């Protein structure tokens, strides 16, 4: 019996374990200058072939090695783009909208270059997760459409991160958002949540194009659009539904990017090399540690460190809330070695402080040993705002403070601010038998303040017509007041009435609040 090289057999076994089934794709939309294409008909998701990891390996026979073409097809992809192409499973969308988006992207080669280079940090992890869930690899390209792979991106509607989660939807998918971090920007957490959401939507609609429309527009909106068409006897595919322009262009954008990735040479595009290898690995953090120190111990540029750990909102990493950080693959061991060897003992120069009562920024700065400007900068506090009692702020950590921040504070700390009451000097004329106390009652201020402002005793009686000095709150044009989760209303100034102790009473119409079904 003829013996075959062991190395070749092992290569076949290994490549069979990691390569996703290759699915044929339509090339029509990928040919610039192709003739008009008819509007897309009913679109259904291609059936997903289950992958059973760790299944039994079949014996390799000489016939298996006879065809060099078959062997080449089973080789490990040369780069990650090739691996993504092999995992395409969605039906192609064709038409003028796709060609318009292709022209938009190809006319901006610098934009494509920046976007694809930025994606190189995150793509391998996303592709791994998609293959683990047996989902189409086209979905790895979705952050190109959502955020150009910028984890710090924030939309005008307050959607944040690579996958652009709204605050309420992020909370629904267990993405924590507090004073220390925003998991909508976290690479691992947001990818997990986005794929969970997409799987949920595909389960609802049974079609990837409709699932993507729901990801952009909301499942409730897509469901109602389908119901309207069913009632009118119309089709219910993505191409049939009446939807906003943003959603109408959403899937064609993804299709255009897919076409460029599939055939870059047809679009005079050169994709940067993205190795088919993990870019980062997760490293456990056991102590609160400054962001700058963590980057230094890992021998990583601060900018690169923040690109892999974009959820952090403060200059300190709290181990109780963020027990793991991401580091470039070759720097993980460097960090662990340097962390163990660090001799100063105090890894964090910042800690958390809870305001015991509502106070000015100046008072909070005095209590924490900071200047007002330092406290404002470290905690992003705008001018003319009060710090509400119970708010959590980042303040310097002294050598005497040995304990790290607790998990309760790290996971739930919030910074709540209220408009600072601005007063203006004014004078009024005293009436007959007018006293300090009666003036104070009329203008809702403290008698002691009236006495101090006019340099008289608290029991003094004013002469009729005497000028009385007062410092009264200035009414702003509008007051912005938080209502429910992630929503605000603007209330006319006439609804704001100055009262004692410098507070404002605001009447807000009662309204119901529910978790929005849609993402944006």
TrEMBL record:
Name the domain of life.
Answer: Bacteria
**Cleavable signal peptide:** 1-20
Q: Does the keyword GTP-binding apply?
A: no
Domain Transglycosylase SLT, which positions?
129-231
Q: Which Pfam families match?
A: LysM, SLT
Q: Which CDD domains match?
A: LysM, MltD-like
List keywords of the entry alphabetically: Signal
List the PROSITE patterns hit by this protein, alphabetically: TRANSGLYCOSYLASE (PS00922)
Task: List, for all copies, the residue spans of the domain called LysM.
Answer: 433-470
User: InterPro entries given for it?
Assistant: LysM, LysM_dom_sf, Lysozyme-like_dom_sf, Transglyc_AS, Transglycosylase_SLT_dom_1
Instruction: Report whether Disulfide bond shows up as a keyword of the record.
Output: no
* Similarity comment: Belongs to the transglycosylase Slt family.
Protein name as it appears in the record:
Transglycosylase SLT domain-containing protein
Organism per entry: Caenimonas terrae
